[in-house]
Amino acid sequence: MKLPIKILIVSDNPTGFTGYGNQTRGLAARLAKDPIFEVVFLGCQNHNSNETWLDLTDFNNMSISEYKRINCIRYLGSGFRPYPSDVLQEILDREKPDILFILLDSFMLYSNPWGWITNIQIAPTKFVMYFPSDGYPFPLHCEEVLKKADVRVAMSKFAQRQVIDQFGLDDTLYIPHAVDPNQFYPLNETMKQENINYWSKRLNYDFRNKFIIGAVARNQGRKMWDRTFRTLGEWNKKYSHDDWIFIAHCDFHDPANHLNIIEIIKRFKLEGKVIWDGTKVFKGFNTIEMNYLYNLFNLQFFMSSGEGFGIPFIESMACEIPNLIPAFTSPIELVGENKERGILIEVKDFMIGTWNVDRGLANVEDAVEKLEYCYNHREELKLMGKRGREEVLKYYSWDVVFPQFKQLFEEIVLK
User: Fold this and answer.
1) Per residue, what are the HEC states of 354-367?
2) How far is CA 177 from CA 26, 330, 401, in A?
3) Section 334-350 average pLDDT
């Protein structure tokens, strides 16, 4: 086996706050510490022609240098198109990596211009496509992206089953997303009280003796914030509890938004019941802040129409916070179907979204009753939370997931 194994990673910026950036940052940082790998990273939002060296050892204290340093990755600019269709061929020809590892939506590799990845000459480099599916069927025509890849790796069992059933791609592998349970963990009772005091001061609201519902999600159409607030409004109208509050970890000025959710909150008479924690799309919270935020919640709840994986779900599970989420796509496998690690909401109907993909419409009436169940069964929520962390330690910890990637990369080069 030729060493080092040179891997070119193409994904969202590892310095950013997207889910893809989160996962490729974690993967690249661990590969960089292993002497058998050389890592080159092409970040999709890094519109810069300069090559730098990026230290990903600590996300809360990342550093960029013009000079090579130990445990660093080489960080390349991505050109001027939204995805690196204008520079990938040139970089492959120059770098000659052993493996091209891409974590992006399949449609990102098929559009702008149409079908562009299918026209890239990748061989003899081996192409590994690490892909999601957040609905059904698979995005229109995007199976061509999967067929271009030498190795297909689904991030959810849902996506793996889908492409096997729909396209007969029986050799599709499954490796889930991961979280570091040493960074996301439950606080003890003393620290929980200190945490409540900290957030009360930071957000100028007294969280003591409140039932705290939270959601960590982008402000984009697929996340269905309107349906989340509709549910909260109906629950509040029907049961009229006065000791609850909802914390939204999203940016209501997100450029991906398509609704005025401030007006939607007013429409459902939720003024004073929703608190924005101040996060911004391009300046999110670090892992320390996120761990403390999850620990403030009693429950995470939102009405997403489908998830490719759901990093906030495993982050909250690692903190022993259960999830109340729709029973569609990956949430089913993450929280379980019988209240093991959270509760699933019935998906009543579907709408066809972009790329002709069905999006699940969760049943508001069912969600209202399950919110009330959670409100009245807080000790049961704690048990779900404990089982959630056990599941993370067993299946979704980086200590479990990274060796799967390492073995895969070694086997690809050995073939």
Assistant:
1) HHHCEEEEECHHHH
2) 10, 11, 8
3) 95
